[in-house]
Amino acid sequence: MKLNEIRDNEGATKNRMRVGRGIGSGKGKTAGRGVKGQKARSGVAIKGFEGGQMPLHRRLPKRGFNNPGATDLNEVNIGRIQQAVDAGRLDPAVPVTVEALHAAGVVARVRDGVKILGVGELSAKLTFEVARASKSAVAAIEKAGGSVTQSLAATDGAVASA
């Protein structure tokens, strides 16, 4: 195979339809746009317009808000971390951080940090430097002889009651 012989698979592409080029083409006269009116012209921008009726996006009630200060954490179970240790992708001598988990392929991308959850079994003695960890995860890590350092407070974002 040569570079000049490379072609798309049969049927992968369609030829462009030339519109408005005579009645014999099948797309002449109105060029598939129907007849007259705003939508037959160019520059139409009527998304969401319902002919003067209150549009659906304004009729429906709005709920909640998007918190701009919210932390977007990766959630990882200790069982998944143990699998990475067993496979040799995670070194037990090096502290487990979000960067180390990303390098080991445990998390797809580094967000604001990582939260360790307690599902699964942990047998390796590991040192964790993470944003958060659940109580069950901390208990399992300490039972295996490891330690946890949390950089974000466990009550971050929660409302304190007086």
TrEMBL record:
One of its GO terms (cellular component) is ribosome. Residues 21-35 have a biased composition (Gly residues). InterPro entries: Ribosomal_uL15, Ribosomal_uL15/eL18, Ribosomal_uL15/eL18_sf, Ribosomal_uL15_bac-type, Ribosomal_uL15_CS. It comes from the Bacteria. The keyword rRNA-binding applies. PANTHER family: 50S RIBOSOMAL PROTEIN L15, LARGE RIBOSOMAL SUBUNIT PROTEIN UL15M. Belongs to the universal ribosomal protein uL15 family. It holds the Pfam family Ribosomal_L27A. This is Large ribosomal subunit protein uL15. Residues 1-40 are annotated as: Disordered. Residues 75-149 form the Large ribosomal subunit protein uL15/eL18 domain. Residues 1-13 have a biased composition (Basic and acidic residues). SUPFAM superfamilies: Ribosomal proteins L15p and L18e. Binds to the 23S rRNA. Keywords: Ribonucleoprotein, Ribosomal protein, RNA-binding, rRNA-binding. Part of the 50S ribosomal subunit.
